[in-house]
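Limitations
The structure tokens in this dataset are predictions for the assembled complex, not deposited experimental models. Users should treat interface geometry with appropriate caution, especially where small molecules or nucleic acid strands are included. An illustrative entry is reproduced here so readers can see what is and is not provided.
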Amino acid sequence: MSVKKLDGKVPAGHVKEKWDNHRFNMKLVNPANKRKFSVIVVGTGLAGSSAAATLAELGYKVDVFCIQDSPRRAHSIAAQGGVNAAKNYPGDGDSIWRLFYDTVKGGDYRAREANVYRLAQVSNNIIDQCVGQGVPFAREYGGTLSNRSFGGAQVSRTFYARGQTGQQLLLGAYSALMKENGAGKVNIHTRQEMVELVTVEGKARGIITRNIITGEFQKWAADAVLLCTGGYGNVYFLSTNAMTSNGSAAWKAYKKGAMFGNPCFTQIHPTCIPVHGEGQSKLTLMSESLRNDGRVWVPKKVGDTRKPSEIPNEERDYYLERRYPSFGNLVPRDVASRNAKMMVDEKRGVGETGIAVYLDFRDAIQRDGEDVIRAKYGNLFDMYERITDDNPYEVPMRIYPAVHYTMGGIWVDYNLMTTVPGLFALGEANFSDHGANRLGASALMQGLADGYFVIPYTLGNYFVTEKLMTDKVKVDHPEFDKALKHAQDHFKKLQNVNGKKSVDSFHRDLGNLMWENVGMGRNEAGLKKAITEIAALRKEFWKDVKVTGTDVGINVELEKANRVADFLELGELMARDALERRESCGGHFREESQTEENEAKRDDENFCHAACWEYTGPDSTPIRNIEELNFEYVALTQRSYK
Amino acid sequence: MSAKKININLKIWRQVNKEAPGSMVDYRLEGVSTDSSFLEMIDQLNEQLIAKNDEPVAFDHDCREGICGMCSMMINGNAHGPEKATTTCQLHMRKFKDEDTIVVEPWRAKAFPVLKDLMVDRTAFDKIQSAGGFVSINTGNAQDANAILIGQETAELAMDAAQCIGCGACVASCKNASAMLFVGAKISQFALLPQGKVEAKDRAIKMVSKMDELGFGNCTNEAECEASCPKEISISNIARMNREYLKSAVTGRNH
Amino acid sequence: MSRFYHYLNSSIMKKQIMGVTGLLLCGFLVSHLIGNCLIYFGDRAFNTYAHTLVTNPLIYVAEAILLGIFLTHIFMAMKLTLENKAARPVAYAVKKPTGRGSTIASSTMPYTGLLILVFLIFHILHFKFGPVYKITYDGVEMRDLYRLLIEYFHQPLAVVWYVFCMLALGLHVSHGFWSAFQSIGFNHPKYNACLKNLSKVYALLITIGFSALPIYCYLQGGR
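Predicted assembly:
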């Protein structure tokens, strides 16, 4: 077994012309023939809904699947801040090139340049399309679109709809999807979970689903399968992801030959509401716009239990302002998160648990008045108070980092195709265009770019080049029965363990292991420990998990057990990937690889590549293949926010 | 502030499936942290049930931050509980007292059949949306975003309506199980914006017809929907829908 | 035709029909109240007014229209109420108003409406089809409705029943008046408060106006 070098299939030419050239060179499906091709779309977030709607508009026969009761519930809906585009409406020096440059740099040079450039290119079309759909973006008095600067960007390129941009964009894509559904061109299958990928002669040809309502398994055939299933942040148990967000569809694909790219790249968001206790089920994000006016601090003294108001200024450590004088509280997400952890590790954390830092608006309120602050952040302050019962106008907020987004995911080439022909991955599900760290307001951009403006072109090319018009597979093919049986056996096995510990308790244990060892700071010893302990936990899971209920009808425990079983494998792969990547980059911080000032230190000589993990069997170590990353247009430099 | 532990008594609707009859079942839950959300309290109950080899309570939930619209519980006779502008997942146990009895039921409406315990089927909302809740613009058809000028006030009004999370609390709290707030909000969002005006007549007729067909009740202007709406969507949107419908019925040519 | 029926049978048109007929009935109430107030000017003014009204041949057209409006309002109310009940076949074990939406007036519309219907039937039986006394003014013989009223409201129970029903009517229109505007689509932040207040003033006027009549008659002491 040798290490492969994957080809990203980046088209030739200058980065500015690659996508245009590629679009011209790709083969087209005759309009009359489009209805002869069928596509399965798994997931209905921004990527899935936009892809399904657009493909149906083009004339393809589309079947779309989601686990919630409606496509509109996908977790893209929870994105708050906004969506970036290089419109340069404010005329403040933005351009496609600058958005491209910022994204490559922000991702700490671990993304594919050509993809990022294409993303920046189509970003403007996204805004046009969404406005056309009736997305109510914020407006200026003159009626033009309003922009704001987000996540420390030096230009105002973020479009937003109050603090609910993700919701509005998703509802826009959902409305397009429902339009096609009404026209009979998309079949929507809600409360159905993909439990197996079906490949025939190496090509993705369909999926097996489990109906959440009835417990029945079903076979679905198509000419291509699109995974738009989001990220796997819930491997940490506590994250800002939704409760049903999971990595299972991606994991089943991985086991069928789709390589997993950079699994260890996770984003930890610095401003979340801290954990309140052991009953905590998920974490809530507070928009990072709060850092524009809030000052982050902890007491200077270790173990200081005084109320924040009783701690005088000279005994407070505004550590971000101290350590990063030019960026201060606005340092990128990964830097802010790591510093908060450092304070807590120094036992200077605040609150009852000691696992939090203060985000204080006292000075901003004194400077601008409470009304100004209320106008800017009123709804966020209300949300904070509802959850914590603290009034942030009077006492500083307590915040702590939480897992938020996974940059890693299924590896795809320039056409968004995985290493399994016919299987595509879009949005957060792929090892996206964000490299090792995603910039604020870029996730929405990527999901919609993939769905609206990339896959509609590249999918047609796949159909024609693979001559799928005449080469059809139906669900009566033996491979479908094999996959169906495999899935059924897996679920039966879960039910037959008959152990004593609940599914959630395993998930919680896994989450703790991951957070402690594969979280904000990672080192060799911790990662090695994580690999062995996750394996042990997995063994225990298969011996002692208790799944109540039957296989008929709704069984939430069984659903969860399937997902946690996959997380128990995926977590190990993440640790393995983190162990092998002996450099720090973006959200991946290896304690062994830092500068004298405790900043992330990249090793471009040895790690300027994407790790592409290949499954080799249930009890065998996966192979780490690579895709070389070449930076022709954005010079490799060390990030500095001092 | 500082968390306390409370004990509560629960009366929860249990129903095996769509066809089976259901009933209220009593549970006792001790040591609930007042910092827990209502759903975390149900999680705790479920852990207790699993430990006793009972089947946990099935309920819909997903984002747990008040935006996905999945959670849906009738708590002590109020949709999403007693707090204003709050989804079930954002309701916290500090709003309850030690030894309180809490009655939890699913949304009840002919158009929202119960699937199991507290889970209901809300695909009716998707069907209404499919009937006309969109602007017929295909990907790639759009002109430059700033070519359409929309006054700030109009954009804000449209956003007020567009905030709907589709949870169905309006239907659940309405004594007539009417879906007018949901439909009114969608029709309003598009009727307000120039992009949606082109199809406004068709949309109003089609969405209302679908709503009626699905068995929702009629509006009697009591505004319980607005009062229960986690996003505080105004019944002025229902008035706008009434206006739009009347206009379409009187002047529409195509239907 | 079927399209027309489809519109008429839509949830929105049905409540618009409720609203419009309700508003027309509100108008009728005002004219009825003004006419009745002639009672304060003595038997002659009142009886002559009534006589002029019933001897005008157009009265049959007017009565037919009024009856049509009433029947439409009542029929629609029943249809809507039944449909609304059917929309929730399984009731909640516990259901409480939020305290931020519905009012006593709004939540009792079907009941106050039913009470008004019962009242109306008796009202017509008593006065339109009740005992016919005759009186002659200036050689013109006419019905002495004034006497009928004074006699009828001499019974304290009749006064109590009448006032009770007028309270119900007041409650009914206090929601109905505003609600009709909402149903036909009139809702504007600038005028909403004004309209809601107008609704209350109107309800108060109707209740006090119509309740004052039997009390006045009672105070006449049977003659």
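Some entries come with short summary sentences. For this one: Chain A has three domains: 18-268+405-465, 272-401, 480-607.
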